Amino acid sequence: MATSERLTIGIDIGGTNLRAAVVDPTGRIIDVEQLPTPSSVGALDTAIGHVVAALRTRHEVVAVGLAVAAFITADQTSVRFAPHLPWRDIEIRDRMTRVLGLPVVLEHDANAAAWGEQILGPGREADTWAFFAVGTGIGGALVTDRKLYRGEFGTAPEFGHLTVVQGGRTCPCGKRGCLERYCSGSALELTAREFIATGRHPRSALAEHYHSAPEGITGRTVVRLARDGDPLALKVIEDFACWMGRGLAVVQEILDPGLIVVGGGVSRDADLFLDHAVAEMAENVVGAGHRPLARVETGVLGADAGMIGVALLAGTANP
């Protein structure tokens, strides 16, 4: 067993994958385990236990942090609701502490990622800033005076579930027309399929791919073909960027931050869409052209931000 001082495990439980990392106090990832995110409570609990046990065979750790795409109670003990996960009104922190035999910290995944970027990324230079995380869905976080803002009931902010299209696409949260149905990794797939189904496309490799293997159309397919210059894939990316810009404009209107950090797995392809999104944001705020706007930057931790951030939080909570 490898030993080191103050190692913790950070687990990012997203709608698609459950990723766990051993992290040292500087935020360096030492080891990783990953599984598909299970769809039942029992299987999810088992998966968490499996990745922690696997990592503990190789490293001595002192605590575990769980970063969850969910509404978490203000005391950070329970999950109220998780649009992409099976947990509903269930106590998590103390139960997983007993199951794992280690202290457990429970945190919203976007808050965890924001904390990673606060310690190691662009947030180091800002006192008040917003985090806009784009992955399977959209997560959000707000840092004020270098502290995470949670709201009265622990659920603030939820950028991804702002209704942007009345009666629009169905969302796993139970609503329709949420921003993340138009601006997320899964939205890239939805938009591509919609454009093809309605005939809104030029001749393209993406359309040909869909007609030969419909199940093979994913957000990654869209991004790959956009990088190859495929006209339909580029139109999908353009649509995505427009919705992101409108979402960023709402963040600017409501919170007026000095910095917005775009993170999450999709941010690794920010060169395809971020300039367009920022221009769209600038056109959609009140007083456009006559007010200062947040600078918009990509995070430095990418898809690892949640794991790193919650691992650092677990270490801080268990000195």
From TrEMBL:
InterPro entries: ATPase_NBD, ROK, ROK_cs. Transmembrane segments: none annotated. GO terms for molecular function: kinase activity. The lineage of its organism: Bacteria, Bacillati, Actinomycetota, Actinomycetes, Mycobacteriales. It comes from the Bacteria. SUPFAM superfamilies: Actin-like ATPase domain. Keywords: Kinase, Transferase. It comes from Corynebacterium terpenotabidum Y-11. This is Glucose kinase. Pfam families: ROK. Belongs to the ROK (NagC/XylR) family.
